[in-house]
Amino acid sequence: MLPVPALHPDPTPLFTVVMPCFRARETIGVAVRSVLTQTEPSFELLIVDDGSPDDSAAVALAAAAGDPRVRILVQENKGPAAARNHGAADGIGTLVAFLDSDDRWADDLLARHRTRFAMEPCLGVSFARTRFYDAAMAQPGRMSAHVDRLTLSHVLGENPVCTTSNIVARRSVLDSVGGFDLTMKHAEDQEWLVRVLAITAWEIRGIDAALVDYRMSAAGLSADLGAMQAGWEAMIERARGYARAKIGAAEPGARALFHRYLARRALRTGQGSSEALNHMLLALRYSPIALIAGGLRRSLMTAAGALACATLPAGVVRATISR
Fold this sequence. Notes:
This protein is of the alpha/beta class. The chain folds into two domains: about 210 residues, Alpha-Beta Complex (Spore Coat Polysaccharide Biosynthesis Protein SpsA, Chain A); about 100 residues, no CATH class. Helices cover about 45% and strands about 20% of the residues. It contains 13 helices and nine strands. Strands 1, 2, 3, 4, 5, 6, 7, 8 and 9 form a nine-stranded mixed sheet that branches. Helix 1 links the parallel strand 1 and strand 2. The longest helix is centred in the C-terminal third of the chain and has 44 residues. It is globular, with a radius of gyration of 20 Å. It starts with 14 loop residues before the first strand and ends with a helix.
């Protein structure tokens, strides 16, 4: 029997894949394997151990099964934004992709993005559609909408990119606008996308295919809407510092769509009709036109759900609003 040749890391990988790692031992194996099964072989996977108190990094290495494209970087606990910046800075790929340790990719994600970047020289950031799953990654739910070309209003409003696991960027874009803002505790990925659109000429475009599976954890389902709103306000304030005129023009419509999003989230998580209704009333106050242009059916269903929540069982409302 002929000996099997040893694997060697690609000295010039096209992609750097960055995966922050903190208390992820239950999920990181799935995430790692979804990278290693990519049909596109030219990548390095940098797992950044963010001072995790468990054995997440060891579980990740076990899942890697000796694949030389996988490296572990270690830092003291600074949060996922710092971990992503660390991995991106340490990598050498000309395209940088991010994957959280509790999500997973379709096998052709990197190949699809590679084709898109090769065809479009003005493309700075690429994303796809996201499929939302339960905590066990067993039951698929709703899928994010397809948007071909992202605008500031899209990003500031409901943000079709949905998750950092759905961001693939040219390294030159990161070099131009910098990494994720370490001062932000929420919406740092959203603020980064705003920065790209507000201060560069790079385009952000979507692929009409569900390539990212997002795990809805128990903590995510009970998310504090107040904290989400505070994070969004911090993002807006941060963005005003470098693009006041552009943010001012997009803000009313974006606020309408964001409050519609909060209303839908309140309904999905069973946080009551008053919370959902208050957010829908705020959305109407900020921009009825944005609610129409941004999906009239979606706006009507959200408003109807908020009104019905007081009389119908919560499960019925959640099922309706998830369509």
